[in-house]
Amino acid sequence: MKIGIVGLGLIGGSIGLDLRAKGFPVVGVSRQAHICQEAVRRGVVDSAGIDLKLLATTDLIFICTPIGAIVPTVKQLVSHLTIDTVLTDVGSVKTAVVEAIAPLWQNFVGGHPMAGRAESGLDAAEPNMFAGKAYILTPTDATPRATIEVVQRAIFALEAKYYQCRPEDHDSAVAWISHLPVFSSASLISACLQETDPKILALAEAFASSGFRDTSRVGGGSPELGMMMAQYNQVALLRSLSVYRSQLDQVIAEIEQANWTALEQRLQQTQVARPQFLS
Ligand code: NAP
Known about the structure:
Bound molecules: NADP nicotinamide-adenine-dinucleotide phosphate
CATH superfamily of the largest domain: NAD(P)-binding Rossmann-like Domain
Helix content: 40-55%
Strand content: 5-15%
Largest sheet: 8 strands, mixed
CATH topology of the largest domain: Rossmann fold
Number of domains: 2
Low-confidence stretches: none
Mean pLDDT: 97
Oligomer: single chain
């Protein structure tokens, strides 16, 4: 199975590294010639270029561009493909992408690997990024079974944990555990920046350690990715943010009223619940 990758950044580069290591031939397309050369040099792809025509002979193509560029890329790509070519994307939001691509290409299934890091671009790509992590496909009733199976083969080669659900259910679920964390973490960083005493702010910056590193990581990542989450998953994100705000209001009230029993119960519940999300 010959693999194509459009967008040789963090996710596209990491997919290329692992699939090549598993023996799949990989062709890459980037908009920049120097990235193509660098991707070949690093063993991310066997060959690469700036022309989407290079993907004409591939069997499975991963679209790994920013969310806003996925549909325009597919529109440019499809005229170069044979009818059997399977397309998938890796975008963090699924409903809008799946709805827009369905009329353009039958052998398409939306996908989302739940792996990543704060850095972006080819330099951030690394091997084994997907091993043991969830990789979700979001077929519709019209998606051919054979299309799903082709992408599954690659997901198993990445050693990811396979899941399947409807695009809308994916977007509601990731609003809770991926998109809400980006904005709660970003709000944590901006709240710290509201400190008006420069001496206290300097001390806070100096004292920040593992707790701050953990809780600020996703809020300090790519602004482009966060913007795409908000724009393309607006309804589900707003719902989770308003529930989060109400939880914060309850915490504030419990602390203001010195209601230590309620606060302790809350922290006991969250301590018990956390492993359910991470096991
Ligand atoms: P990235 O490192 O910035 O890579 C995206 C690549 O797409 C860039 O290297 C760029 O390559 C290309 N690109 C940028 N703008 C483009 C445009 N307008 N048209 C065509 N190509 C363009 O980003 P990423 O983190 O890999 O994210 C890629 C996708 O993965 C996104 O859809 C995101 O939602 C999804 N995702 C991200 C994460 C994460 O943690 N970052 C996790 C799961 C899924 P060239 O400049 O070389 O063309």
